[in-house]
Amino acid sequence: MAEPFGAETTTEEVLAGVDLSGKRVLVTGVSAGLGVETARAAAAHGATVIGTARDLAKARAALAPHSDLGIDMIECDLASLASVRACADALVARGESFDVIVANAGVMNCPFAHTADGFETQFGTNHLGHFVLVNRLVPLLKRSGRVVILSSSAHQASDVDLDDPSFEKTAYEPFVAYGRSKTANILFALELDRRLRGRDALATALHPGGIMTDLLRHTTPEMLQEMAAQAAGNTGAPVKVKTVPQGGATSVWAAFAAPAEAVGGRYLVDCRVAEVASGREGVQAYALDPERAKALWAKSEQMVGERFPEA
Length: 311
Fold this sequence. Notes:
With 311 residues, this protein is an alpha/beta fold. The chain has helices at 11-14, 33-44, 56-63, 81-94, 121-137, 174-196, 221-232, 244-247, 249-257, 290-304, and strands at residues 24-28, 48-53, 72-75, 98-103, 141-150, 202-207, 210-211, 241-242, 267-269, 272-273, 276-277, 283-284. The longest helix has 23 residues, at 174-196.
């Protein structure tokens, strides 16, 4: 019988009775919100957790209430490939494998700007930073391991633009840029999953739900209203806001509880596989196009100046 999980399920409900002792988990973005909750939930159930953060002081403060769980931290600024590579090199040098990598960190609706490497901030941080970090850590991923990449229903706002990823030719719109980066997250998970099959590992992308966290710091009330209207879309129903423990549920479900067939190359929402849809519900077909995923992979390698062989 299927687990009775859904939109209101919390991390603790997903992990009830689950012992994660012996598991090693990496979670990016542990300085606030879902990153803190995902790291906390895994560590509270026995996992050894390493968290990354751009601002380690902020991360230490955020994790201070959970200091007894022994969550380790390492610096990683996803908007700087030098920082990403230094983080990956340090973890590889330790030589300790991971059962799960959760690519949780991100930025949203930023004013137009560039990363340290000259990429548009949202695409560069949300996609390219994780693209390099995760690929460099694949040698540490255990057989049957899982990579969980947080995307968003905002992927519905836009497909990726492989001809103009940094808005050099088109006018910049913050939510469109966010949508592009979130579509990229799904396509990255799709192609990564294909490449990981040789080592029996899986990759998936997910929408955690609408949660009021620090991610919204660049989102004006007007943007929020527009996003809510788009999310209501075909149904006209009010948007439901999740608590942080509810928002983290799909991440821990994908990482530790979901069956393999519900993870590999899938897009998840509310602890289930989302249906492909042409409207404003479910996952857009362009985000699950394997040829599009391969094209994005090639473009990403070109942009970061690094090639990643099949696992």
